Automatic annotation (TrEMBL):
Any one Pfam family match given in the protein's UniProt record, by short name: 2OG-FeII_Oxy
Superkingdom of origin: Eukaryota
Source organism per UniProt: Zea mays
Protein name (Swiss-Prot/TrEMBL): Fe2OG dioxygenase domain-containing protein
Start and end residues of each Fe2OG dioxygenase domain: 204-311
Keyword Iron set for record: yes
């Protein structure tokens, strides 16, 4: 899949290594961050779903998932931590080690896998569409992973270990995403088999974004590792590599207060699961995508792995007819998936502004 790519930017990791105490370039500084409201960290605020109980169609666990999708956060923004998901510990640990090894490579070695003009895959940064926009304090390796025929191995770090590890990990995570989507669709009354997801509505394709957030000793409170956004997919499963807190979810006002950012304390071995824009569109707003951002640490690097699951590239993105009642009006436009992806990656990240553009005019 080729589409509009991102403008090339310097490696933040290399910049930090070259001048650890140098001033942070102005394009990374965000003075408005000081005005943001951040609520106290409370791990119990984020719903925890037991995947094995979900597979057994446990009614309490299914109801908990449905409530998380519909009710958590007051305005129906779904984010959970998924435990007992069945991805073996050794598979997750091998993936973490592979990512750490890649970002520990010399700068010249990583540049072998740099993004090319007009493509999204590779080592670099995404969503840079102008020469004057603010930049994220991060480097990424972004790859198409499932199905295998969508891979461009020229962007995959050489060596059987990395490639085999990512192949095993991506297949295991997609297996979880397929079944999690099946449980969600059953909760919505759609009679889709958990074991045989329709690629037009289920996770037909997967991409993985491996994130490296260097420490920022000079201005950690004035930069962002990842700008506020919602994901363009159905479901995102995020694994924290070194368990360092940084992910924050936007929480709506409670009792007339201000919008606030809620830190997510990652559970060891759990996946943080976010609903994406496609699932919000498919469900006509019943399940809503999660706006989130990533902070950086002043002294320690932070790494994470996000696996994005989307329908087949041949799918049509729009409210599912089966979910629209006789009197329900579609809230979102309908377009082909390729155009949807191209639109998403052709603009900078700015909250849920992309999804707002997908809404129909009333």
């Amino acid at each position: 899949m080729e589409m509009t790519g991102s403008l090339p930017v310097p490696s933040v990791q290399a910049m930090v290594a070259a001048g650890r105490h140098a001033p942070v370039p102005p394009r990374y500084l965000r003075p408005d961050l000081a005005a943001d409201v951040v609520v106290a960290d409370d791990a119990t605020t984020i719903p925890i779903i037991d995947f094995q109980r979900l597979l057994l169609v446990d009614p309490e666990e299914s109801a908990r998932l449905h409530a998380a999708c519909q009710d958590w956060g007051f305005f129906q923004k779904m984010c959970t931590q998924l435990i007992n998901h069945g991805v073996p510990d050794d598979v997750m640990e091998a993936m973490k080690a592979s990512i750490q090894s890649f970002f520990a490579l010399p700068a010249e070695a990583k540049q072998q896998y740099r993004q090319q003009a007009g493509q999204l895959e590779g080592y670099g940064q995404l969503f840079v569409v102008s020469e004057d926009q603010k930049l994220d304090w991060a480097d990424v390796l972004y790859l198409n992973t499932q199905p295998p025929e969508h891979r461009n191995l020229s962007f995959w770090p050489a060596g059987e270990s990395f490639r085999q590890t990512l192949d095993t990990y991506s297949a295991a995570v997609k297996h979880v995403a397929d079944r999690l989507l099946g449980a969600m669709y059953m909760n919505l009354g759609l009679q889709l088999s958990i074991m045989d997801m329709d690629p037009e509505r289920g996770a037909g394709i997967q991409s993985v974004r491996m994130n490296y957030y260097p420490p920022c000793a000079e201005a950690a409170d004035k930069v962002l590792g990842f700008s506020p956004h919602s994901d363009s997919d159905l479901l995102t499963l995020v694994l924290q590599v070194n368990q360092l807190q940084g992910l924050q979810i936007k929480r709506p006002p409670d009792g007339g207060g201000a919008w606030a950012w809620l830190p997510v304390t990652p559970l060891q071995g759990a996946f943080v699961v976010n609903v994406g824009d496609v699932l919000e569109i498919f469900t006509n707003g019943r399940y809503r995508s999660v706006e989130h951002r990533a902070l950086v640490n002043a002294h320690t690097e932070r790494l994470s792995i996000a696996a994005f699951h989307s329908p087949s590239i041949h799918a049509t993105i729009g409210p599912l007819p089966e979910l629209l009642g006789d009197q329900e009006v579609p809230k979102y436009k309908t377009l082909d998936h390729q155009s949807f992806i191209t639109l998403f990656f052709s603009a900078k990240l700015q909250g849920k502004s992309f999804l707002e553009r997908m809404k129909k005019l009333s």
